[in-house]
Description:
The complex is a heterodimer.
Chain A: E1 4-12, E2 21-28, E3 33-38, H1 44-52, H2 54-57, E4 62-69, E5 72-73, H3 79-85, E6 86-89, H4 102-112, H5 117-130, H6 146-158, E7 164-168, H7 176-193, E8 196-200, H8 204-207, E9 213-218, E10 221-226, H9 229-238, H10 246-253, H11 263-271, H12 274-284, H13 287-301, E11 305-313, E12 319-328, E13 333-337, H14 344-351, E14 359-364, E15 367-368, H15 374-377, E16 381-384, H16 397-408, H17 415-422, H18 438-450, E17 456-460, H19 468-483, E18 487-491, H20 495-501, E19 504-509, E20 512-518, H21 519-524, H22 532-537, H23 547-564
Parallel strand pairs in A: 3-8, 3-9, 6-7, 7-8, 13-18, 13-19, 16-17, 17-18
Antiparallel strand pairs in A: 1-2, 1-4, 4-5, 9-10, 11-12, 11-14, 14-15, 19-20
Chain B: H1 16-32, H2 36-52, H3 56-80, E1 87-94, E2 98-103, H4 104-130, H5 133-139, H6 145-174, H7 184-215, H8 233-255, H9 271-284, H10 286-296, H11 298-303
Amino acid sequence: MADIKIEDLKYYYPDSKEPSLNKINLEIPEGQFVLIVGGSGSGKSSLVRAVAGLIPEFYGGTYRGKVYLDNRELRQIDRRCLTQQIGMVFQDPESQLVMTGVEPEIAFGMENIGLPNNLMKRRVMEVTSALGLSSCTNSFIAELSGGQKQKVALASVLAMQPDILLLDEPTSQLDPIAGEEILSMVRRLNEENGLTVVLIEQRLERCFHLADRILVMDKGRIIYDHHAPDAIAHWAVKNDTPFIPPLARLFAGVQYPEIPVTVKQGRRIIKSYYPVANAINAIKDRKPVLEKKAKVLQVEKKNIVEVHNLWFTYPNGEEVLKDVNLTIAPGEFVVVMGENGAGKTTLLKNINGLLKPGRGHVQVAQKDTRKCLIEELACEVGYLSQDPNDYLFLPSVYEELTYTMNNLGLKDDGIIKEVLNRLHLTNYSRDNPRDLSTGERQRVALASVLVSRPKLLLLDEPTRGLDYLLKEELGKILLELQKEGTAILIITHDVEFAAEYADRIILMADGTIVANGSKYDILTNSTFYSPQVSKLFNNIIDNVVTIKQGKDVLNQIIAMHNDDKAVPV
Amino acid sequence: MLIYREKDNLIHRLHPFTIIMFIGVVFFLSLVFSHPVYLLGLLIAVGAVITAAGNFQEWKIYLKFGFIMIILIMFINVIMVHAGDTVLISGPRVPVIGSLNITLEALVFGAGMGIRLFVIISVFCLYTYSVHPDKILKLFSSCGNKSILIITLATRLFPLMVRDYFRITEVQRCRGVKIKTGGWWKRVKNFLPIVSVMLISSLERSLQLAESMHARGYGSGKRISYNREFWRPRDYLILAALTISLGCGVWTAISGWSTCSYYPKLPETQIYQVDMACFLVFLLLMPAILNWGWKKWPILKSKI
């Protein structure tokens, strides 16, 4: 086992004038579970790469200060020896797996460090059993799900038996269930094997409670370092930092002295106010129902999307959509959720005309998609895929926008300037979009879609890999578009995002719509598709979904409790 | 896309060296032999092994393609080549080609070359469907680690790039890029954004891959190749049969039994030539025969 010690570390990437790491001083004792949070470009990834020795050895650049591993300077340690002590798992499983098969991939690291064949066999057997990969050791990597691929990446690193495990957003490209599984495994490794874990993660609601210590980074510096979640949550609310999970933000937002990190702890606090909470529930009950009725009336008037008895089968015979019926009105914000393979993306592709219905009808803006080419629908329907990089190839942001307009035969009547302004991209209009950060790239891709003034905007997993701040920005932009009458349909696994911004939630399973209703109906009556705030108030106070609603209710509870001077049960 | 599928038969459970030796021997003999009987024998042997491997359905597609090729080769050969004494049809004089005489020798030569092509295509079919790509690359990893790794990476990234291509095409079509309509030049031009995005994304991915490999110690010293393959009696039996067939094949080629000079007149095929061809086919059928026994008698499964 090994301690990490960093002294006055300052690092510039090649050709960069701003330091990516600035005056970093840090000590991580062995066996600690450290969570690093911060916005895009805050230096999180650079810090773990410095610990792994990839900075400066792989990246080059200017490097000052020292990183020690067990009191030995990292740069003095032989790389083969270092690889056996520090293992790193990266963000995208597709971009870190080398071999075609699972077993050779797991053995890849061990082959590199020259372990004997017998030992390799033993370790492959051990890690595949431990990570539940035994059934797919003979499979091809290309045939695995995203979660399985990330498990293989983790297994390949663990097979080298490192003392320190570094994980750079390992769940950002995975669905929630697969992500949860990976984090549970990491926790088990930390608790049962005493492995030191340094984790960068954006979905804090899943890992905040796992960490022994949380580091907050900004502009290359560690701006907060604490062990107690209470202190971090209060500090975050005071400094208006969004990098705490919704539950902690809720309680810290009302200045509650105790900060729960799990729903279980939160419910214990709420239940202690049970008589007051019950009284509030009676008042709160009706409002969302009225909201829902108003929406239904609007839907009945005019629809931008009408899907009737849609069936779709792929050429290989796989029946993916079964008798789907759906309408979307202008200005509606609809979120489609469901597990992988439920038919969400196929539904989206049937709506934007990429796929044509097998049976049934799909009408978008009164046009039958079967009779239109996708290019003809492109003016009415904007589509943003989950990877903004799929859009970007031109040398400037401005050219990306004009490219869409030229394709669609549209003239710039000031729309480019308007969209650039709205998405805060005016200063970047001459920059190469590939040089921008993740959030900025996504905004450029969105801008390239919005210049055609679509009546319907389709987004496939737009929050994947985004931090809290970027998600909030995206949510605000979408709400503005919604106010102007653009209908929005999003596929996402992000329940928290859906709870904050959607009007209507559609749940899909096995090619059918299994639930379709207001977010209050769907999210508050669900075990898994429910945000932390709803889980907190479940069966205590109804129809609480957003953080704002949660804060209002919590404030009310505390105020009534103080007024009545009621003694908690 | 990767089309290899592991199946429950003896061919898929051979040591990669054994199956690659079979493929190599058949391929080599198909180039050495020119006698149509010997070439037909090779086709029977490789066809039986493909069928034993459970890949007959896939081979059928190759057969259709091969059949068209044979017809084409025979047709072109009889039209263009007028050598041969046995004239079957005497046709009119055609400019450039000359007199259109169809000879038996040209017809049989065309058929012989067609069968040779058939054997080569079938050998590739066997390699594609019955051989695990990683296992073969592992076999050769000691001969050139870096080159093998590049081939492995290419095999791994190819399905990924195909998926990228379809996804990026969809995205660009949603931006109004016309891929399926308009003139061919415009369509070609409209492919540029797709190719550009693929290139840029592949470059970014290659950097991430390199980083992941570096983090797992690639290039930190001598690599040891991970090997989990076992040698079983079946491998020794087949390798012995292959060695004998290779030796006999080379000897028949040197002695002229398996070669054939089609022109000016087809030589008569001797009985000893057919006997030797049958013996060679029997040896090359060894994997298929063992597979048949392996399935029929469970005791054989445990013994070989």
